[in-house]
Amino acid sequence: MSMIKQRLRDFKLSGIYNSYEDRIKYATDKSLSYEEFLELVLEDEVNNRKDNSYKKRYSKAKFPYSKKIEDFDFGFQPSINKRTINDICTCQFVEKNHNVVFIGSPGTGKTHLSIGIGIKAVLKGYKVLFTQVSEMLQSLYFSKADNSYYQKLSYYLTPDLLILDELGFKKIPAYSADDFFEVISKRYEKGSVIITTNKNFESWGEIFADSILASAITDRIVHYSAIINIKGPSYRRKDLRDKGGGKE
Questions:
Q1: What is the b/e burial string over 59-70, where b = at least 16 CB atoms within 10 angstroms of the residue's CB?
Q2: Is the pLDDT of residue 248 over 50?
Q3: DSSP characters for 96-155?
Q4: Does residue 228 contact residue 66 with C-beta atoms inside 8 Å?
Q5: Is residue 146 predicted with pLDDT exceeding 60?
Q6: CA 246/CA 248 separation, integer angstroms
Q7: DSSP label at 161?
Q8: Across residues 13-32, what is the average pLDDT?
Q9: 121: phi then psi, degrees, rounded to nearest 5
Q10: Which domains, ranges and CATH numbers included, belong to the chain?
């Protein structure tokens, strides 16, 4: 290993380290000046660090699978305004600590859209965390047994964008409803939330078994929030029909 490459490794300049020989050849072939060569290898380092940073943020986001906005079939769900979704994908709502709520029946694309927006946020440099509501509440409940509750609570408060999937699929017990309120109230105007739910706001009292608490949670979520109501059919049923497993 040459002394230069050793120094690049010592200084943790992996972007330049990995492209060094190719850039030397390119600079020689193109008769680049010292300044042009330096700009070239520094750009390699910047791009490498951006790529590594993205990979780390994507990994920490805990997306269950990769779903891009570009792959969403807006033609199948005409109740969704594509322009509204594209505006949300600019992630200005994250910058402003605003929220997004997707309301619709199971299989209508709520999770797909929330993940797609989350990926856009990761690409823009934001810290994102995806979790099912039941998973978060169970994690917070168990953390009380070993006195790590506030550490676990911080885990859900730290991201710029917290995606809470499947609110309303299970009734939330009173002790967990308090934890849900704790997360929402502490993130209020300090961090953005995306929520997917199969229940209209009028039914949230049933989810939390406490109309007063449900009202307090709803007020904090709806304030500065984009509400997307999806009225269309289920994608999963469409896929079943397309595979010949169901009737038209």
A1: eebebeeebebe
A2: no
A3: TT-EEEEEE-TTSSHHHHHHHHHHHHHHTT--EEEEEHHHHHHHHHHHTTTT-HHHHHHH
A4: no
A5: yes
A6: 7
A7: E
A8: 91
A9: -65, -40
A10: 3-61 (no CATH), 69-241 (3.40.50.300)
Query: How many Å apart are CA 191 and CA 98, to the nearest integer?
Result: 7
Cα angle for residues 7, 9, 14 (degrees, 5° grid)? 125
User: Given the structure tokens 């309301």, which residue do they identify?
Assistant: 103
pTM above 0.90, yes or no: no
Q: Which residues contact 52 (CB under 8 A, 6 or more apart)?
A: none
Burial class (CB in 10 A: 0-12, 13-18, 19+), 150: exposed
DSSP structure class, residue 244: T
CA 96 to chain centre: 16
d(CA 243, CA 125): 39
- Residue 211 burial by CB count (10 A; 0-12/13-18/19+): exposed, middle or buried? exposed
